[in-house]
């Protein structure tokens, strides 16, 4: 007995629609979905759990609100559709005060809740350590990075611009910053020329660097909690070779970090490569303007 073509098409349509929820349920168990497709792992630093939870919970709230909104829209479309043989227009209403109060109050409540959680997590990530174990002076420049280990009074080799020619990803071609795991680290950020942005992708946190501004006004305080090698880049369009302003971050054990400091000291990389290597032609004018605005 053959199945009519119309029924066959209907069966296939419903089968295809039933596969979608099944696939969504299966993929929701993956680690990528649980962290909202964010890069890196949840416990890369002490801040990444805050970012992950805020991101994922915001999407959950948005999905719930979206489902409710679409359900109400569809319900109105079906319940108040124009019936057959209906003549004229439905009764017109100039306003509905309870409905308008609802439309105003609910979005305000949603925004206030999101603001409270965002402000709480932002304040937690912006807190500074009273006595960090490691202090790094980070200098962005067109188009590379300089890293100074302040307490140890040594510096990495001056950063050299990467070249996207197929070999740029090798570790010895990129400036590399070493950080000890499970230690309080303060990154003090400054620019040698134009505006840049320090971004370690897996740390889920970045901050802009401005020329002529005191380096202690721009900082990131974190505790790296997972060893490994991570990707760094400039996240602010800073000129022709912005895309090649790359670096790496290696989070290592305390012993490996101390060995790196000893290697730099043995190479003669002592001292801090500071303001004397800045090349912003407007820096004197910026400093004078800053002095005039200080009380």
UniProtKB/TrEMBL annotation:
Quick check: keyword Electron transport in the entry? yes
According to the UniProt entry, what is the EC number of this protein?
7.1.1.9
Listed under GO biological process in this entry are: ATP synthesis coupled electron transport
Q: Which Gene3D superfamilies does UniProt cross-reference here?
A: 1.10.287.90, Cupredoxins - blue copper proteins
Highest taxon of the lineage: Bacteria
Q: Which GO terms describe its cellular component?
A: membrane
Q: What are the UniProt keywords, alphabetically?
A: Copper, Electron transport, Membrane, Metal-binding, Translocase, Transmembrane, Transmembrane helix, Transport
- Where primarily located? membrane
What residue ranges are annotated as transmembrane?
Answer: 55-80, 101-118
Q: Quote the subcellular location field of this record.
A: Membrane
The annotated region (Disordered) lies at: 268-295
Q: What Gene Ontology molecular-function terms does this entry list?
A: copper ion binding; cytochrome-c oxidase activity
Task: Give me the reactions it catalyses.
Answer: 4 Fe(II)-[cytochrome c] + O2 + 8 H(+)(in) = 4 Fe(III)-[cytochrome c] + 2 H2O + 4 H(+)(out)
How does this chain sit within the bilayer?
Multi-pass membrane protein
Q: Which InterPro entries does the entry mention?
A: CcO_II (IPR045187), CcO_II-like_C (IPR002429), Copper_CuA (IPR001505), Cupredoxin (IPR008972), Cyt_c_oxidase_su2_TM_sf (IPR036257)
- Top-rank EC class of the record's enzyme: translocase
Cytochrome oxidase subunit II copper A binding domain segment(s): 131-263
PROSITE patterns, from UniProt? COX2, COX2_CUA, PROKAR_LIPOPROTEIN
Entry keyword annotation includes Plastid? no
Its biological purpose is as follows: Subunits I and II form the functional core of the enzyme complex. Electrons originating in cytochrome c are transferred via heme a and Cu(A) to the binuclear center formed by heme a3 and Cu(B).
Tell me which family the UniProt entry assigns to this protein: Belongs to the cytochrome c oxidase subunit 2 family.
* Descriptive protein name: cytochrome-c oxidase
Q: Which gene encodes it?
A: ctaC
């Amino acid at each position: 007995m053959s199945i009519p073509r119309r029924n066959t098409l209907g069966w296939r349509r419903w089968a295809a629609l039933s596969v979608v929820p099944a696939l969504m349920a299966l993929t929701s168990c993956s680690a990528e979905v649980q962290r909202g497709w964010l890069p890196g792992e949840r416990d890369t630093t002490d801040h990444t759990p805050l970012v992950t939870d805020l991101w994922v919970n915001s999407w959950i709230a948005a999905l719930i609100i979206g489902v409710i909104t679409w359900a109400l829209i569809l319900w109105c479309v079906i319940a108040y559709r124009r019936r057959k043989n209906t003549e004229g227009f439905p009764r017109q209403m100039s306003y509905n005060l309870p409905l308008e109060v609802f439309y105003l109050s609910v979005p305000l409540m949603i925004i206030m809740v999101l603001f409270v959680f965002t402000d709480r997590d932002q304040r937690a990530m912006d807190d500074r350590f009273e006595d960090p174990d490691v202090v790094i002076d980070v200098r962005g420049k067109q188009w590379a990075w300089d890293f100074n280990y302040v307490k140890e009074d040594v510096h990495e080799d001056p950063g050299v611009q990467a070249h996207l020619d197929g070999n740029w990803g090798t570790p010895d071609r990129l400036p590399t910053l070493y950080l000890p795991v499970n230690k309080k680290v303060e990154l003090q950020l400054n620019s040698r020329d134009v505006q840049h942005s320090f971004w370690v992708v897996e740390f889920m946190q970045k901050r802009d660097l401005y020329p002529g501004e005191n380096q202690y006004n721009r900082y990131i305080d974190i505790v790296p909690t997972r060893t490994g090698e991570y990707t760094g880049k400039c996240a602010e369009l800073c000129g022709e070779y912005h895309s090649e302003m790359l670096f790496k971050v290696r989070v290592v054990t305390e012993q490996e970090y101390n060995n790196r400091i000893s290697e730099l000291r043995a190479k003669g990389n002592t001292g801090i490569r500071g303001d004397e290597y800045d090349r912003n032609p407007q820096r004197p004018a910026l400093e004078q303007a800053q002095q005039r605005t200080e009380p």
